[in-house]
Amino acid sequence: MERADLVALDKQYVWHPYTAMDEYIANTDPLVVVRAEGPYLHDADGTRYLDANGSWWVSTLGHRHPRLVRALTEQAGTFPHTSLAGVTHEPAARLAQELIALAPGAGREDVPAGERLSRVFYSDNGSTAVEVAIKMAAQYWAQNGRPRRTRFITLSGAFHGETIGSTSVGGVQLFRDIFGPLLFDVVHVPSPAEPEGWERAFARVEAALREHPDEIAAVILEPVIQGAAGMQVYAPGFVRAVREATRAVDTFLIADEVFTGLGRTGARFACDLAGVVPDLLCLAKALSGGLMPFAATLATERVFAGFGGGRERALYYGHSYCGNPLGAAVAREVLAVYRDEDVLGQVVRKAPKVKAAFERMAATIPGVKQPRAIGMVGAVDLGGGGYLARGGWRVYEAARRRGLYLRPLGDTVYVAPALNIPDAALDELLAGVEASLREVAAGRA
Ligand SMILES: *Cc1c(COP(=O)(O)O)cnc(C)c1O
Q: Which residue's CA is minimally distant from atom 6 of ligand 1?
């Protein structure tokens, strides 16, 4: 089919995510991907694009990694799907073992047995990984002597996904407001990434825990970097302080590592940067390397034990594709590739380059502010316009003319490429971002 015909078909039938469709249909010439490999996407018109955001943060090992493709096709040729209801299989069982062996706190003698992450619950995507954690926390307290613990403390700017539950614990007003009446009540505290420092946010967390110790089921946070808020980086000390404060009143900490998990920050988990073991840990995105929708929620032995006893105490939750063999087989291979290709070491080595590039952009391009970087993420802001601002989209257009796919978050321009992006491609990517920002800044001047 011709490219133009495909675009016409798309515009007639497809409703795109996070897209103002009138504007899209009238003005957008979408990328029409026909092939992808490593950090590159190929358009039907012959253009090759560097994928600056790893296809919405999932493609951490690049596109079409041969080992992942092989794991997927081998599993598909054996048995592509079974339920996990009274059934198990090697990919699900061994992946669980492997995740537990890598989880924050694994092997640490100072972590009491009940506080170790020891159980894996599978689902399909980041939103459901969070939904599972929310339900586990709420049900745990409901049937273990603290039935009034039904509220969650959440951070301003937080993003935890798309379901009503994960939207309820979100803190991006634009995504929440319209559903206001449908969302459950949470305690909002300021973001630890605000310029005043994390201490003010922490004081509010502590105060909320002190004021409502009988009501708080958990604090939920994206450790060390709030992704969708615009790549807002904050100090690991905040995560540590929240962990201590939740312990002091004996309530839970949920770490949403859907974005940060598996190396994005340079550590295996962002919780490791803080030396923190959460009660519940949510993983998706990188877990299946951009091949399959797949997610896991890790729970401590204490949380798990809270569901033992009578049948009425079980977690009545499960998706059709829970622990699906294709996703689990790919995830096992993802972990093997991380080990064999020293992916974390690669991130640590390349991260200073990302940081230096974004600092240089902010220092030398008029109107470019707030450089921040951690691991394989770098970002700057153009204005203070938030998610609906258009500044980032002008940079998107300029980048696209340079063969760079650079999806902004409003006025925030960021990169979150494959963690194993080759050095030459990373240089090209950073130079392309800089040139695009300069072009837009010159146009504005
Ligand atoms: C992307 C994201 C989610 C939602 O994951 P989906 O797979 O898109 O449902 C949840 N939490 C964080 C921190 C994320 O970045």
A: 126
